[in-house]
Specification:
alpha+beta; single chain; cytoplasm; 308 residues; oxygen-dependent coproporphyrinogen oxidase; 26% strand; Oxygen-dependent coproporphyrinogen-III oxidase; 40% helix; globular; two-stranded antiparallel ribbon
Length: 308
């Protein structure tokens, strides 16, 4: 892997520990174990090399599908999705590592959640390395509960607070704007925080900020999952959940930079697409019944709102 004065080894060590801690907590709630799929792409076998650990749970007691992946890959030319906003690094060698997860609970009253934290560096002979951190987390409920959304946003705010009062409003807005389906003119969910190309605090403090976000994930999501996982539901709720999951698929395949980066760089397709929900439906021209809980998701939650 490319050597960098910004010590990618210490980032990798923390990322692997984060993945392990999250898996342990989720297995305790679900009662079933994640499978461990370790993979490697040797140099010379494609445009990228490296490897990772994909941890997957399907048909669990609580999680219908959950994926928590670690990857550490490198290459010699950046795909268009990565260099679009930074044309100055287009010709550099690059290295990327991160933990990314998506959890799709079985119960429609328990929201889907996404989180990722990542580190990227690009090098060229005789030039200073270009590096940054990125990541965030966002919540996608199917049935809205104000206490859940407020708790999630408050935890995100608290994770960023030690690093500057300006970060949470900025990263919340970034999340609202990023996780937006332009062709639908609607948000994917109720947001959270999102940041990319972050290096403003210097390496040590920027890394500390990313760690605070990653470490805050379990505090942000597990109380919500515990509260909703046993709520009674029927076929109506499952049907609406499958319909709304279609929006998740549309966003990931059309807009998500991480998905596009992985696919365009020749990444491991199975690991890239582990975020997809297992059961999805699309309908033509359907709208929820006025005044219903399904309609309330649109009117009260899928809107721009300051939750904390």
């Amino acid at each position: 892997m490319i050597q960098s004065p910004t010590s990618p080894f210490i980032v990798k060590t923390w990322l692997l520990d984060l993945q392990a801690r999250i898996i342990t907590a989720l297995e305790a709630i679900d009662g079933r174990q994640f499978i461990n799929d370790t993979w490697e792409r040797p140099e010379g076998m494609g445009p990228i090399s490296g490897g990772g650990i994909s941890r997957i749970l399907e048909e669990g007691n609580v999680l219908e599908r959950g994926g928590v992946g670690f990857s550490h890959v490198s290459g010699q030319s950046l795909p268009p999705s990565a260099a679009a906003n930074r044309p100055d690094i287009a010709g550099r060698n690059w290295e990327a590592m991160g933990v990314s997860l998506v959890l799709h609970p079985r119960n429609p009253y328990a929201p889907t959640v996404h989180m990722n934290v990542r580190f990227f560096t690009a090098t060229a002979p005789g030039q200073e390395p270009v590096w940054w951190f990125g990541g965030g987390m966002d919540l996608t409920p199917y049935y809205g509960f104000e206490e859940d959304v407020t708790h999630f946003h408050r935890t995100c705010r608290d994770a960023l607070a030690p690093f500057g009062d300006d970060l949470h409003p900025r990263f919340k807005t970034w999340c609202d704007e990023y996780f937006y389906l332009k062709h639908r003119k609607e948000p994917r969910g109720v947001g959270g925080i999102f940041f990319d190309d972050f290096h403003a605090l210097g390496f040590e403090q920027s890394f500390a900020m990313m760690k605070s976000v990653g470490d805050g994930f379990l505090d942000a999501y597990l109380p919500i999952l515990q509260r909703r996982k046993d709520t009674p539901y029927g076929e109506r709720e499952r049907d609406f959940q499958a319909y709304r999951r279609g929006r998740y698929v549309e966003f990931n395949l059309v807009f998500d930079r991480g998905t596009l980066f992985g696919l365009q760089s020749g990444g491991r397709t199975e690991s890239i697409l582990m975020s997809m929900p297992p059961i999805v439906k699309w309908r033509y021209g359907w709208t929820p019944e006025p005044g219903s809980d399904e309609a309330r998701l649109y009117s009260d939650f899928l809107i721009h709102r300051e939750w904390v």
